[in-house]
């Protein structure tokens, strides 16, 4: 997979333009500024695509991939889906969410990939690879494609570099897992910096609930623990629409899902 991602970004620009993002669309290749509020320039080329459900894929993208990239990607998607479901099962167990609820919500859920190429920048302090954010997803499985580091996570207000282990994934907790676990897990705020000398390439795969599933504190968790819900519940399709209509800005979106004292709480 790593080799194929490198080959993708090494293709001549004319080739990559076959996958170019069209105005108003979000699937494809381009130097998208991810609605960044940051003053810094976003220094990266990205390719984003919905991979599941299959009918939401922009069919021209995967179909036009070079055969080896397409086949490798399909295999990668399948294997990572299995890994993600294993992780969701274990995560659910740890916080008292019934396994069946995790399966109902995430199995064959909405999935997407983002490949990012961060070119070297002689003045890395003046740019940002990817602006601080938490992922909307349940979990994100990240693969660092070459050995150049750049990912940082915010811990107690301080940015800490993440060292990827050779051939290991990094798994991010996303906002949806924070909501489903009723705040037991915290989604991780992260950003990517760029290197002065070397390019950096990453591949992120996002695992979300089914589009028709509810995004809210897991019902079995509330029943099993007797805890009150701390977050609102929204249908996934609406949750995504709201998420993408806002600017990427730390964890501010999640704040809006929190139930405040003066909110009316309807029994789920
Ligand atoms: O490049 C990375 O390591 C992080 C990518 C990322 O956070 C994202 O695509 O949401
Ligand atoms: Fe991210």
Structural commentary:
By secondary structure, this protein is α+β, with helices and mostly antiparallel strands. It has a single domain, classed as B-lactam Antibiotic, Isopenicillin N Synthase, Chain (Jelly Rolls, Sandwich). Helix content is 31%, strand content 23%. It has 9 helices and 14 strands. The chain has a 6-stranded antiparallel beta sheet. The chain has a 4-stranded antiparallel beta sheet with strand order 6-11-8-9, with no helix packed on it. A hairpin with a 2-residue loop joins strand 8 (151-155) and strand 9. The protein starts with a helix and ends in an 11-residue tail after the last helix. The mean pLDDT is 90. It binds 2-oxoglutaric acid and fe (ii) ion. 2-oxoglutaric acid binds next to strand 4, strand 11 and strand 12.
List the helices and strands and how they pair.
Elements: H1 2-10, H2 13-16, E1 28-30, E2 41-42, E3 45-52, H3 59-64, H4 67-94, H5 99-106, E4 111-118, E5 127-128, E6 130-133, E7 139-144, E8 151-155, E9 158-161, E10 170-173, H6 175-180, E11 190-192, E12 200-207, E13 214-215, H7 219-225, E14 234-235, H8 236-244, H9 252-257
Parallel strand pairs: 2-5
Antiparallel strand pairs: 1-3, 3-4, 4-12, 6-11, 7-10, 7-12, 8-9, 8-11, 13-14
Helix pairs in contact: 4-5
The structure holds 2-oxoglutaric acid and fe (ii) ion.
The site of fe (ii) ion (FE2) has 3 residues, from loops.
